Amino acid sequence: MMGLYRTLRSFNQGYMLTVMWLLITAMVIAIFFMFVHPFGTILLFWLGLIVLGLAYLAGKLSIVMQRRMARRNLTAGRCPACGGTVAHAARGDVQWACPKCDLDFLPTGAESPREGEPA
Ligand SMILES: [Zn+2]
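Above: inputs. Below: predicted complex with zinc ion.
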């Protein structure tokens, strides 16, 4: 259960960058095809648009799953990341705080970005 949350979490953290590099690679291939086989470029363009749309939906779904899993654990008083006991916090938007792994959670189940850390 905790392992699944951690897997989802690291997946969501690296997902956007992976999709970006995948599409940049496709673009480079498309540029190459432009001189060799113009139809390949058109095909890759539309394929890229479809992949971008699907990747966006898959990313959203993955985030929804991560937050749902986090909420289920947090309402049971458990930290979804380390399994430690979470404490209720009333700091701004933060509703739960884990003293063990130092993560803050919003009521949505999203992790709150730490101060000094990029959001
Ligand atoms: Zn924790």
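Residues 79, 81-82, 84, 98, 100-101, 103 surround zinc ion (CB under 6 Å).
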